[in-house]
Amino acid sequence: QVQLVESGGGLVQAGGSLRLSCVASGRIFSINAMGWYRQAPGKQRELVARINSGGSTNHADSVKGRFTISRDNAKNTVYLQMNSLKPEDTAVYYCNILALPYGGNRHADYWGQGTQVTVSS
Question: Most exposed among 1, 42, 52, 64, judged by the fewest C-beta atoms under 10 Å?
Fold first, then answer.
């Protein structure tokens, strides 16, 4: 089994910062891409940022210049540094990885439970 544990969410005032972390553990042979998604009430889940195994990143237009995704391959951990937060960033943030489990023959998507980020105006 593969487990993802997120941390770092919380309540912050507009203009503030938060750093999300997600640690992947379990029977993981290799991790390809790692990413963060978010879902606000009444809206669909959307991609926030993604980073591949080589370190190339892409960020949603709505967060470019404010959020930065990074990863530590030795720790199977992905981070999301969020600066200049806005009320519209309020959502549940989910960690996602595309990983090959031990004994598997194809990569699969795995999801964390989500962490709440609330930005007050």
Answer: 42
